[in-house]
UniProtKB/TrEMBL annotation:
InterPro entries: MraZ, MraZ_C, MraZ_dom, MraZ_N, MraZ_sf, SpoVT-AbrB_dom, SpoVT-AbrB_sf. GO terms for biological process: cell division; negative regulation of DNA-templated transcription initiation. This is Transcriptional regulator MraZ. Gene3D superfamilies: Transcriptional regulator MraZ domain. The gene is mraZ. Pfam families: MraZ. Keywords: Cell cycle, Cell division, Cytoplasm, DNA-binding, Repeat, Transcription, Transcription regulation.
């Protein structure tokens, strides 16, 4: 499970150093793709296969499902990190997420999310109060 918040920097070639605690899990390969709120999602390859299989179960008669799959899968790039845990985020995905140098990588359970650090800070500030206010409604019985 991916947890926590990390603040690596992209290097001049658009490469991201994976946080050390996640390198073994991603060593065999990963998929980086568009996420929500202009973030990027990073899945270990085996987890991405599960997500893609779930998408295949969606009805192709649903325009919303087709649109979602097109955007999600067309932006996907499979990568293998080097021995230092670096991999290149393709230019089109860096542009989509507005990534320049300072990024925030958050653990989101089965995936990592990569955000421009300023965008993440603004998002977190805007959503922290609603997080506190709606925990019971969003996930009943959690607390």
């Amino acid at each position: 499970m991916f947890l926590g918040t990390h603040t690596p920097r992209l290097d001049d070639k658009g490469r991201l150093f994976l946080p050390a605690k996640y390198r073994d899990r991603m060593a065999a390969g990963l998929v980086v793709t568009r996420g929500q709120e202009r973030s990027l999602f990073i899945y270990p390859m085996d987890e991405f296969v599960k997500v893609a299989e779930q998408m295949r179960q969606a009805p192709t008669t649903s325009r919303a499902a087709r649109d979602y799959m097109r955007v999600f899968l067309s932006g996907a790039s499979d990568e293998i990190p080097d021995k230092q845990g670096r991999f290149t985020i393709p230019a089109n995905l860096r542009q989509y997420a507005g990534l320049d140098r300072d990024v925030t990588v958050i653990g989101a359970g089965s995936r990592l999310e990569v955000w421009d650090s300023a965008v993440w800070d603004a998002y977190l500030e805007a959503t922290e109060q609603s997080f506190a206010d709606t925990a019971e409604e969003v996930i009943p019985g959690l607390f």
